[in-house]
């Protein structure tokens, strides 16, 4: 999970979220356990508006 605070602009969060999830195959971290569909599984905090916009698109 990547967390931020409410002061971070929604457009910035959407851009960072897209950069991560649109490029999972190119990341050097272990990404075989996370997908766009599973990213929110078990999440106990509310999504930032920008992340919500990305996942709802």
Overview of the structural elements:
This protein has 57 residues and is mostly helical. The protein has one domain (10-56). Helices cover 35% and strands 0% of the residues. It contains two helices and no strands. The protein has helices at residues 10-21, 49-56. Helix 1 packs across helix 2. The longest helix has 12 residues, at 10-21. The radius of gyration is 11 Å and the shape is globular. It starts with 9 loop residues before the first helix and ends with a helix. The mean pLDDT is 85.
Describe the structure concisely.
This protein has 57 residues and is an all-alpha fold. The chain has helices at 10-21, 49-56. Helix 1 (10-21) crosses helix 2 (49-56).
Beta strand % = under 5%
Tally of distinct domains: 1
* Order of helix and strand elements from N to C terminus: HH
Counting DSSP E segments of at least 2 residues, the number of strands comes to 0
**Low-confidence runs of at least 5 consecutive residues:** none
Class computed from helices, strands and strand pairing: mainly alpha
Average predicted confidence as pLDDT: 85
Radius of gyration: 11 Å
Shape: globular
Number of helices: 2
Please give the alpha-carbon distance between the first and last residues. 20 Å
**Helical fraction:** 25-40%
Largest sheet: none
Give the secondary structure arrangement, pairings included.
Elements: H1 10-21, H2 49-56
Helix pairs in contact: 1-2
